[in-house]
Amino acid sequence: MLVFVAPAVYPNNQNPSAGIFIFNRYKEITKFKHKIVILDASAYRFNNWLQDECRHIIRTNDEVGDIYSLHVKGFMTSRFPQIAVRSYKKNLEKLYNEAIKKHGKPDILVAHFCLPSGFTALELGQKEGLPVVIVEHHHLMCNENIHPYIKNNLKKTVISANAFVCGSNYLRQM
Q1: pTM value?
Q2: In angstroms, what CA-CA distances link 117 with 33, 60, 100, 102, 151?
Q3: Is 72 in a helix, a strand, or coil?
């Protein structure tokens, strides 16, 4: 099975421990002979915006598989969610198009975190006719004062995803 993964965070040059739990999870999944391709459009802070990874698609690999990186120029997601989602979506689509040139169309698209990767992966999956699984790890979604844009898209994402998985029972209940 060919699995494209869109994590909101993944280990990279600027932050080698970012999303290490996602790396570890997919490292285990590769033991089942699934082909994993990481589409890393995670955000870089403003002081790293001039790095190549924010201007060009960089293809590398690790123990999980091929990684396509084009990092988003980070915006404060909780304050400016529309900008963050728009920027992430643009880069995710570029990474997806580059990855299918080498690997072909995936069997499934998996996104980690609803914001911004889940929202955008869902739109991409619907456009491409792919099943989409979203894995939520973040307690932000349980916040009472959640931004209306996030709240509306969270509901749409939970309802529309082919599968929605939570990292804890508390998140699932919320």
Answers
A1: 0.87
A2: 25, 20, 18, 22, 15
A3: strand
